Amino acid sequence: MSIIISPSLLSVDFLDLKTELERLNSSDDLWLHLDVMDGHFVPNLTFGEPVLNKVKSVSKHKLDAHFMVTNPEFYVDNFKKVGLHNFTYHWEAVTNHEKLIAKIKASYPSVGISLKPKTPVSVLPLSILSTIDVILMMSVEPGFGGQKFMPEVIDKLIELDKIRHENKLTFQIQVDGGISDENAGYLIQAGANNLVAGSYIFSEPNKDYAKRINKIR
Ligand code: DX5
Ligand code: ZN
User: Ligand 1 pocket: which residues have CB below 6 Å?
Assistant: First the structure.
């Protein structure tokens, strides 16, 4: 599996959104990571469908939405026309996973499930791991960019990668939170294929984001 880097929109200069997105268009093998927060599942509120429609019109990359929301089912319908590639919801927000996954699959090419740092890998049954496309492991408490990486996630990645390997499953393992060139190598070694990075990429002093993306690679 090739490594995908997913720059997180949360850390861009929103007053200059179009130019920021154009800067990312010079890199390849990226997903554009979109943190949709509802101010309820997490104590922060971000952007919704009208903003993401504009993002879609400028970005050449696949759109990867990470829904930190209490009621992901509502957003499945609400975001249908945006043209998202991946729809990731939080395990902790839902009880009937089979129903929600089927609903997402009907409208989106890729389905992801995210686990908060304290949610163990053992909650995920094989029946679900064999139907989804992405598992997003949070390496910070969801809600804000710029937090410190929690190294405890590494053991969870190893555990999940082992399950994937033993059962010949094909889902991607994505990691999100506090990622930089300093920890990316350990994450890949532990089994990650997709790294989300916000503050590390967008704090590049000359806005040469490709430079930071390549450093992570
Ligand atoms: C946090 C978000 C992340 C965030 C990552 O809840 O899910 O995607 O933007 O930002 P950094 O890379 O700054 O930790
Ligand atoms: Zn995220």
Answer: 8, 10-11, 33, 35, 66, 140, 142-147, 176-179, 196-200
Mean pLDDT of 27-35: 98
Q: DSSP state, 168?
A: T
Q: Using pLDDT thresholds of 50, 70 and 90, give the confidence band for residue 53.
A: very high
Instruction: Tell me if residue 161 is catalytic.
Output: no
Measure Cα distances from 131 to 10, 90, 135, 217 in Å.
29, 16, 11, 28
Please pick, among 38, 64, 133, 176, the residue that the annotation labels catalytic: 176
Rounded CA-CA distance 31/86 in Å is 9
Average confidence (pLDDT) over 160-166: 98
Entry pTM: 0.98
| Active-site residue flag, 176 | yes
The residues, any chain, with a CB within 8 Å of residue 88's CB and separated by 6 or more, are 64, 65, 66, 67, 111, 112, 113, 114, 134, 136, 174
Q: Which of 190, 202, 203 is nearest to 151 (CA)?
A: 190
Q: Which of 169, 204, 197 is nearest to 1 (CA)?
A: 169
Q: State mean pLDDT over 25-48.
A: 98
Q: Which residue has the tokens 């089927």?
A: 102
Which CATH architecture group holds 4-216? Alpha-Beta Barrel (3.20)
Distance in angstroms (rounded) separating the CA atoms of residues 157 and 137: 8
Give residue-wise pLDDT tens across range 41-50.
Answer: 999 999 999 9
